[in-house]
Design brief:
Layout lengths: L1 H58 L6 H6 L2 H40 L1 H4 L3 H18 L7
Helix pairs in contact: 1-3
Protein backbone atom coordinates (compact mmCIF):
# COMPACT_ATOMS: atom_id res chain seq x y z
CA UNK A 1 0.00 0.00 0.00
CA UNK A 2 2.82 2.43 0.83
CA UNK A 3 4.49 1.72 -2.50
CA UNK A 4 1.25 2.50 -4.36
CA UNK A 5 1.04 5.94 -2.74
CA UNK A 6 4.67 6.61 -3.61
CA UNK A 7 4.08 5.55 -7.23
CA UNK A 8 1.00 7.76 -7.45
CA UNK A 9 2.96 10.73 -6.10
CA UNK A 10 5.78 10.02 -8.53
CA UNK A 11 3.34 9.76 -11.43
CA UNK A 12 1.74 13.06 -10.45
CA UNK A 13 5.20 14.61 -10.12
CA UNK A 14 6.42 13.57 -13.56
CA UNK A 15 3.09 14.60 -15.13
CA UNK A 16 3.53 17.99 -13.47
CA UNK A 17 7.06 18.23 -14.87
CA UNK A 18 5.86 17.32 -18.37
CA UNK A 19 3.02 19.84 -18.17
CA UNK A 20 5.46 22.53 -17.04
CA UNK A 21 7.75 21.73 -19.99
CA UNK A 22 4.84 21.94 -22.42
CA UNK A 23 3.68 25.27 -21.00
CA UNK A 24 7.22 26.70 -21.17
CA UNK A 25 7.52 25.58 -24.80
CA UNK A 26 4.17 27.19 -25.66
CA UNK A 27 5.27 30.45 -24.05
CA UNK A 28 8.51 30.33 -26.02
CA UNK A 29 6.64 29.76 -29.31
CA UNK A 30 4.22 32.60 -28.53
CA UNK A 31 7.09 34.97 -27.77
CA UNK A 32 8.81 33.94 -31.00
CA UNK A 33 5.67 34.70 -33.03
CA UNK A 34 5.34 38.09 -31.35
CA UNK A 35 8.97 38.88 -32.12
CA UNK A 36 8.59 37.94 -35.79
CA UNK A 37 5.39 40.00 -36.04
CA UNK A 38 7.17 43.03 -34.56
CA UNK A 39 10.09 42.56 -36.98
CA UNK A 40 7.75 42.41 -39.97
CA UNK A 41 5.97 45.58 -38.87
CA UNK A 42 9.31 47.33 -38.39
CA UNK A 43 10.51 46.40 -41.88
CA UNK A 44 7.19 47.42 -43.45
CA UNK A 45 7.39 50.85 -41.80
CA UNK A 46 11.04 51.15 -42.84
CA UNK A 47 10.29 50.23 -46.46
CA UNK A 48 7.29 52.55 -46.74
CA UNK A 49 9.34 55.42 -45.32
CA UNK A 50 12.23 54.75 -47.69
CA UNK A 51 9.85 54.75 -50.66
CA UNK A 52 8.26 57.99 -49.44
CA UNK A 53 11.67 59.66 -49.03
CA UNK A 54 12.75 58.52 -52.49
CA UNK A 55 9.57 59.90 -54.03
CA UNK A 56 9.87 63.20 -52.18
CA UNK A 57 13.53 63.61 -53.15
CA UNK A 58 12.77 62.83 -56.78
CA UNK A 59 10.16 65.62 -56.79
CA UNK A 60 12.56 68.18 -55.31
CA UNK A 61 14.07 70.70 -57.68
CA UNK A 62 17.81 70.76 -58.34
CA UNK A 63 18.41 73.99 -56.42
CA UNK A 64 16.58 73.17 -53.20
CA UNK A 65 18.16 72.02 -49.95
CA UNK A 66 17.32 68.38 -49.32
CA UNK A 67 17.61 68.66 -45.55
CA UNK A 68 15.23 71.59 -45.29
CA UNK A 69 12.90 69.95 -47.76
CA UNK A 70 12.72 66.74 -45.70
CA UNK A 71 12.49 68.40 -42.27
CA UNK A 72 9.60 70.62 -43.39
CA UNK A 73 7.58 67.50 -44.15
CA UNK A 74 5.38 66.58 -41.15
CA UNK A 75 4.68 63.10 -42.48
CA UNK A 76 8.38 62.33 -42.56
CA UNK A 77 8.79 63.36 -38.93
CA UNK A 78 5.86 61.13 -37.99
CA UNK A 79 7.52 58.30 -39.93
CA UNK A 80 10.77 58.76 -38.01
CA UNK A 81 8.89 58.63 -34.70
CA UNK A 82 6.97 55.52 -35.85
CA UNK A 83 10.22 53.90 -36.93
CA UNK A 84 11.77 54.45 -33.50
CA UNK A 85 8.66 53.08 -31.77
CA UNK A 86 8.59 50.00 -34.02
CA UNK A 87 12.28 49.34 -33.38
CA UNK A 88 11.78 49.76 -29.62
CA UNK A 89 8.85 47.32 -29.73
CA UNK A 90 10.87 44.80 -31.75
CA UNK A 91 13.81 45.10 -29.37
CA UNK A 92 11.57 44.44 -26.35
CA UNK A 93 9.92 41.45 -28.04
CA UNK A 94 13.34 40.03 -28.94
CA UNK A 95 14.53 40.36 -25.33
CA UNK A 96 11.33 38.73 -24.07
CA UNK A 97 11.78 35.85 -26.53
CA UNK A 98 15.39 35.38 -25.44
CA UNK A 99 14.27 35.22 -21.81
CA UNK A 100 11.55 32.64 -22.55
CA UNK A 101 13.96 30.59 -24.66
CA UNK A 102 16.54 30.64 -21.88
CA UNK A 103 13.92 29.66 -19.27
CA UNK A 104 12.77 26.74 -21.40
CA UNK A 105 16.32 25.54 -22.06
CA UNK A 106 17.19 25.68 -18.35
CA UNK A 107 14.06 23.74 -17.46
CA UNK A 108 14.78 21.17 -20.17
CA UNK A 109 18.36 20.70 -18.98
CA UNK A 110 17.15 20.34 -15.39
CA UNK A 111 14.65 17.66 -16.43
CA UNK A 112 17.33 15.80 -18.40
CA UNK A 113 19.74 15.95 -15.45
CA UNK A 114 17.09 14.75 -13.00
CA UNK A 115 15.41 12.18 -15.28
CA UNK A 116 16.48 9.25 -13.10
CA UNK A 117 14.93 10.90 -10.04
CA UNK A 118 11.70 11.74 -11.86
CA UNK A 119 11.21 8.30 -13.44
CA UNK A 120 12.89 6.21 -10.77
CA UNK A 121 10.41 3.32 -10.66
CA UNK A 122 10.75 0.39 -13.09
CA UNK A 123 7.44 1.24 -14.77
CA UNK A 124 8.53 4.89 -14.95
CA UNK A 125 11.75 3.99 -16.74
CA UNK A 126 9.78 2.06 -19.35
CA UNK A 127 7.40 4.95 -19.86
CA UNK A 128 10.17 7.54 -20.02
CA UNK A 129 11.22 6.71 -23.59
CA UNK A 130 7.61 6.61 -24.73
CA UNK A 131 6.99 10.02 -23.16
CA UNK A 132 10.21 11.41 -24.63
CA UNK A 133 9.07 10.36 -28.12
CA UNK A 134 5.60 11.78 -27.52
CA UNK A 135 7.01 15.13 -26.36
CA UNK A 136 9.36 15.23 -29.33
CA UNK A 137 6.63 14.43 -31.86
CA UNK A 138 3.76 16.50 -30.48
CA UNK A 139 5.49 19.51 -28.92
CA UNK A 140 8.99 19.57 -30.46
CA UNK A 141 10.57 19.08 -27.04
CA UNK A 142 13.69 16.96 -27.38
CA UNK A 143 14.71 15.45 -24.06
CA UNK A 144 17.16 12.96 -25.55
CA UNK A 145 20.06 15.41 -25.25
CA UNK A 146 20.79 18.88 -23.86
Amino acid sequence: MGQDVSEDNNKEYHLFIIDTLIQAKKKEKKAEKQMYRAAIIFFIVLTLGAIYIFLRLSQAGPGSSYLTFLLDDGLLLIWIAALFLCFYNFNNKARYFDKKEKDFEELKEDVIDRADDIWHSPSGSRNRLREYHELNDKYDINLFHK
